[in-house]
From TrEMBL:
This is DUF479 domain-containing protein. GO terms for biological process: fatty acid biosynthetic process. InterPro entries: ACP_PD (IPR007431). The keyword Ion transport does not apply. Keywords: Hydrolase, Lipid biosynthesis, Lipid metabolism. Pfam families: ACP_PD. One of its GO terms (molecular function) is [acyl-carrier-protein] phosphodiesterase activity.
Amino acid sequence: MNYLAHAYLSFNEPHILVGNMISDFVKGRQKSLYAASVQKGIQLHRFIDAFTDDHPVTAKAKQIFRPQYRLYSGPIMDVVYDHFLASDENVFPNDSLLSFTHGVYQTLEEETIHLPQRFLPVLTYMKMENWLYHYRTTDGIYKSLRGLIRRAAFISDSQPALELLLKHYDELRNYYEEFFPAVKQTTKQKLAELLA
């Protein structure tokens, strides 16, 4: 799952949201430098990632991208899942995604004391271009895929990823619809354990 899913799966807990959003910027023992409540968000992020990577539906979905992108098929699926989440009227009815994304940015800005320095410019661009909202558009997804591929070591062309998404769109949406209720329920249970 990518930024939007991690934000949504924080279930409106501010410090869980912070940890969930910064986890990829916190390596190893650095986690202990953060408040205990933020550490739980980091832990939840890693739980979500492991659950997603190990899920059989994700394994099937990654096969669409694996021949072209090999190990990057997982990160591509993270972006694809966020696209279908952003477009999911059951989760974000009546364009409530827009108010949700503004709430996420506001919470993160109110909690900058807990944000790593390397995350601050990411947050600036995320808010300025409203990444979380634009996951729902083809152009927004293409920008996300382009950014992902640009950071990749051995691949450079993001166009085939978009073409594969469009070609297999219904199949990938079905994978999302099968997978997302499972990750939501399991994450909710894990969060309850962390907060107990």
